[in-house]
Specification:
The structure is a homodimer.
Chain A lengths: L5 E6 L8 H9 L4 E6 L14 H6 L4 E4 L10 H12 L3 E4 L9 H10 L3 E3 L18 E7 L6 H14 L4 E4 L3 H7 L13 H8 L8 E4 L11 H11 L3 E6 L17 H12 L7 E7 L6 H15 L3 E2 L1 H4 L2 H10 L3
Parallel strand pairs in A: 1-2, 1-3, 3-4, 4-5, 6-8, 6-9, 7-8, 9-10, 10-11
Helix pairs in contact in A: 1-6, 3-4, 7-8
Chain lengths: 336, 336
């Protein structure tokens, strides 16, 4: 677990997409975020108090989170300098970057010198077992999608928040770097060796008998020619009781592969149910989550209503309209 | 490429299953095998001349192949000593073991001292791209299976041999350590990071325009709860024109997971066609390969005839009865 609360790093970032991990933390773990750190030339803000490293330490911060994406996968000199200063000031440093902090000699030395920790969340756990598919106790929901980056993490986190607000036990299980930083733990599935995909998920979401739900963050898509292997292993390892299908209704083609069209929701639903049945024959779909941020609100509402009727499944935009109808259906299918 | 010819290592092995990689080489690359190396306490033989390291060098051997499985994943002291002696005598050393030769300081030092190479075939290539699914030239056949270890490598290699005997261009593309040692190159798919499974296969089997076939060695099974992610990425990356379904008719349950039954051939056929269609909508099954080694020959022949009729696909045991009917069907479906 990464010690909170956090100081969120924006550095010199100039690109809104590049700070999505820091933003995810600010949105989903506001109580863990004491402020943001940015240089004078950074035009972006998360709406948090701008703090120096010394101010953040005084405010109780325990970890500097490098929640940014770096072009080219290398650690920029400024970023290394800032991280080194944070370690010297008594903060741990966490990163979702491809390039590992531990592989940067200056940071490894500074962490050792100041007795602080470096968290590389893209580093897979060392002891991942091979999956077994053996039935395990507890209830699990998995978000799946017609494509990558269609809102699976947001949907899963919003389900957690809304279920907890209803007094239900529900725990987000992270499978990507942003989710891991938000949750404080998880498995970076894109860094696990191929033979261990389902095993990594069995380990992430062990048996539970408290009546609560594990809400597992999906990855990729069965219809994505680059990543369907990951999605398949994730479905088998998750052994889900419930699936939520995520979809972006305005996307022109599969992400990164312009020669592939998105599947329609029905085909996606059917394929995911079929694959999931290998390890849980009783799996059911309980909802459809759309990202309608690019549509007028009335059109978005009409589309949700239309899809709800077409598939006899609650369809909503979790950000715009909430996830209540999906939780209602979940509770209807699986009495607490 | 691993320089041949080879000296095949049995060492102190006492278990027939443990020497399957050395045996695979003796069966499929006899022209590359000058002899076998075994200690006095090894009761096994590949039927090759027993040679000392010095005799093997004199006979023209270029590489000692450690084609054995080691319990516990560690390199035994005797094995390290033998490999060191081979390096000193002028041989390269190749290994399909989990534990890498390069990580054994004595061997790394000896290889450097004697200017010899260490080949760790379980080490994935460093520059694997993400798969794209973009259509590519050439024809590809992939073996798939109802389970792991049902004869996919043997079937693929026997298809290569028989197609070449008919004057066709056909090249085995290895995806496992035994296949890689037999072929001299390939990709150890079980060691590739999850996001790169399909990309690794696209790289292994690049476009070809000489009218020949790439015969890609399958791995795992869509129905195996541990490894279906690998099989899915392999299907997408292979972009196969033709599939051959491999099956063991006497196996009681899925390998390693006793709570899972084998799927029937029809379900396996249908699922593989459906997944393969994502990157090649025109994919066709061209045959069924059984491992009937545990059955009386007449029963095996009757079973093949029965399955041939049931699925309207040529069914054979490649080892017992050859692969001719499958090649006939392949040529019928895909005119040269």
């Amino acid at each position: 677990m990464i010690p909170g609360p956090y100081l969120l790093y924006l550095g010199n970032s100039r690109d809104e997409v590049g700070i999505k991990t820091s933003r995810g933390l600010a949105v989903f773990r506001p109580e863990e975020c004491v402020g943001e750190f940015r240089h004078d030339d950074c035009p972006l803000t998360l709406g948090l108090t701008r703090l120096t490293i010394a101010q953040a330490v005084a405010a109780g911060a325990k970890t500097l989170v490098l929640g940014i994406v770096n072009a080219g996968g290398k650690l920029a000199p400024t970023l290394v300098e800032d991280a080194e200063a944070a370690l010297a000031a008594g903060l741990h440093v966490a990163s979702g970057l491809h390039h590992r902090l531990k592989d940067e000699p200056r940071l490894a030395a500074a962490a050792s010198r100041h007795d602080r920790l470096l968290f590389d969340v893209r580093e897979p756990p060392a002891d991942v077992p091979v999956g077994t598919g053996a039935p395990r106790a507890g209830r699990r929901l998995l978000t799946v999608g017609t494509d990558c980056s269609v809102g699976k993490m947001y949907t899963t986190l919003l389900l957690e928040k809304a279920m907890r607000a209803r007094g239900l036990r529900a725990d987000f299980r992270a499978t990507g770097q942003t989710g891991i930083l938000i949750a404080g733990s998880g498995v970076p599935l894109d860094a696990v060796v191929a033979d261990f995909i389902s095993g990594a998920i069995e380990q992430l979401s062990p048996p539970r008998d408290d009546g609560g739900w594990d809400l597992i963050e999906g990855q990729g898509s069965l219809f994505h020619p680059s990543f369907a292997g990951v999605s398949t292993g994730l479905l088998h390892g998750a052994q889900p009781d419930a699936l939520v299908i995520c979809h972006d209704p305005v996307r022109a083609h599969m992400r990164g592969v312009p020669h592939f069209k998105l599947p329609d929701i029905g085909a996606c639903l059917e394929a995911n149910i079929r694959v999931a049945q290998l390890t849980n024959p009783a799996v059911q779909a309980v909802g459809i989550a759309l990202n309608t941020s690019a549509m007028p609100r009335d059109e978005a509402a009409a589309l949700c209503a239309d899809i709800t009727q077409r598939f006899d499944l609650p369809c909503t935009d979790p950000v715009a309209f909430g996830v209540s109808p999906i939780i209602d259906r979940l509770l209807q299918c699986f009495a607490p």
